[in-house]
Backbone:
C-alpha cells in the first residue's frame, strides 16, 4: 500500500506498520506479508524517511526496520531514536547479518534474522501490534 493510501484503510486494519527497508524486493515482500496479516503499511527506504513519516503520522503502531541501510543512521540507531521519541511505538529489527556478539537493542525489541519465513514475520508483527 502506498503511504498516501493507508489513511483510507486505517479503520479496517489491525494497526499501522512502518516498514523501513532499502532493498525494493524485500520491502515489497514485507509489505505483502504485513498487509496479508491485516495491517496497514507505510514504507521508508532509510532512517531519515522513517523519522519524517513518524513525525507526520502519529498513529503508527509498529516500526519494522532492517539494520543495514544507506544514510547517516542505521536500523539500530533508528530503533533507539524511535524508543526515545515515540515510546508507545513497538519495534521489530531484522538483519541478514547476525553477529556473534549481543546486539544493542532497546529493551523488549525482538530481532528477526534474514532470511525470515513469512509466518515468522507475520507473528512478530501481530504480537507487536
Residues:
Amino acid at each position: 500500500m502506498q503511504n498516501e493510501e493507508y489513511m483510507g484503510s486505517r479503520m479496517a486494519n489491525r494497526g499501522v506498520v512502518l516498514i523501513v527497508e532499502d532493498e525494493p524486493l524485500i520491502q515489497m515482500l514485507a509489505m505483502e506479508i504485513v498487509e496479508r496479516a491485516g495491517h496497514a503499511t507505510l514504507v521508508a527506504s532509510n532512517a531519515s524517511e522513517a523519522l519524517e513519516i513518524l513525525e507526520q503520522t502519529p498513529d503508527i503502531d509498529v516500526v519494522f526496520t532492517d539494520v543495514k541501510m544507506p544514510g547517516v543512521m542505521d536500523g539500530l540507531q533508528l530503533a533507539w531514536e524511535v524508543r526515545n521519541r515515540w515510546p508507545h511505538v513497538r519495534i521489530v529489527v531484522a538483519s541478514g547479518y547476525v553477529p556473534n556478539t549481543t546486539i544493542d537493542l532497546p529493551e523488549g525489541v525482538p530481532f528477526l534474522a534474514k532470511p525470515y519465513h513469512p509466518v515468522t514475520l507475520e507473528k512478530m508483527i501481530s504480537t507487536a501490534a
About this structure: The first helix runs from residue 6 to 9. The helical segments are 6-9, 24-36, 47-56, 75-85, 118-128. The chain has one domain: 3-128.
